[in-house]
Write a structure and sequence with these properties.
This protein is mainly alpha-helical. The chain has 2 domains: about 110 residues, Ribonuclease H-like superfamily/Ribonuclease H (Nucleotidyltransferase, domain 5), CATH 3.30.420.10; about 40 residues, no CATH class. The protein is about 45% helix and about 10% strand. The chain is built from 7 helices and 4 strands, in the order E-H-E-H-H-E-E-H-H-H-H. The strands form 2 sheets. It has a two-stranded antiparallel sheet with strand order 1-2. Helix 2 crosses helix 3. It is globular, with a radius of gyration of 17 Å.
Length: about 170
């Protein structure tokens, strides 16, 4: 999951920061505020099978390109979190640790995290035995125990450590 956002010049929203430093409740609040201010929002979602086929780094780059391409109106320039280019179709600048350093990247990270968490909550309704609403698919001990107990589900990334051992 990746998100892209175009914010108007001079946009400031109190509390926008790296999504990993915010509570789920605060991310939800900021998601609404960011969407209300945004000129455009785009998302890129790469499915589990594709991640397994091309690897997580390539899937991340593809998700970034898809998110940028989904912006309407399109962006003329992109600030991208990280040190590797997703080879998008517009000029861009890489900013390592950008989710901590750049307001617009922080805003996009919040949108992506909220969207991903919502997907995991939907998966939890379909597959409650895995506890996705609690761990959001991360490799916690609860999640790994559920995989050992219940086996691998169709949504698990089968190439990942902690999952591939049960395929």
């Amino acid at each position: 999951m990746a998100a892209a956002v175009i914010l108007p010049d001079g946009c400031t929203l109190k509390g926008v920061n790296d999504s990993k430093t915010l509570s789920a409740r605060r991310r939800e609040q900021l998601d609404l505020a960011i969407r209300a201010e945004a000129v455009a929002v785009g998302f890129g979602v790469i499915q589990e099978e594709m991640i397994d086929a091309i690897n997580i780094l390539r899937a991340t780059m593809l998700a970034m390109r898809c998110a940028i391409d989904a912006l309407n109106p399109p962006a003329g320039f992109a600030l991208i979190d990280g040190n590797q280019s997703p080879h998008c179709s517009i000029p861009h600048r890489l900013i390592p640790s950008g989710d901590r350093l750049c307001f617009s990247i922080s805003a996009a990270s919040i949108l992506a995290k909220v969207a991903r968490d919502r997907i995991m909550q939907a998966y939890d309704l379909a597959l409650p035995q895995y506890g996705f609403s609690r761990h959001k698919g991360y490799g916690t001990s609860e999640h790994l125990t559920a995989i050992a107990r219940c086996g691998v589900s169709p949504i698990h990334r089968k190439s990942f450590k902690g999952v591939r051992e049960y395929v």
